[in-house]
What we know:
By secondary structure, the chain is mostly helical. Helices cover 60% and strands 0% of the residues. α1 packs across α2. The longest helix is centred in the first third of the chain and has 27 residues, at 10-36.
Amino acid sequence: MSSSLDTRTAPYGLFVLRASLGIMWIAHALLKVFVFGVAGFAGFLGQLGHPTFLAGPVIAAELIGGILILAGIYGRQVSVLLIPVMAAAMMVHVPNGWLFSATNGGWEYPAFLIAASIAHALAGDGAFALRSRPLLFWQSEAPAGLRAA
């Protein structure tokens, strides 16, 4: 099986994915802080029947996780750890429809963050990562037929 992976430019493409993903996680956390406010986000969680004390940990996970991904510090592992956070958010937005610009936000944005986090976790950190490690549950070598030429 042949691969169309360009090994010369792939590390830079992965860097763009990693940097964009990290920035999006950071922006998502800061939206809660500067637009809704921590208390407003806590109230939103309470309206959904979730514990309001989760507001701080969710914001911290998104902010710290985004910074770690952006810097390439165990970014692949952090992406995996953030998937359940966004999966929970997506479930809240599913009844609102697809577009995130819909009233109360749809599920397109959370779904994209999940997909990008999965892609990052599987593909790697790319160039300029400060501390990158392979995923423990994933084989470190691609099968012979899937290695880049």
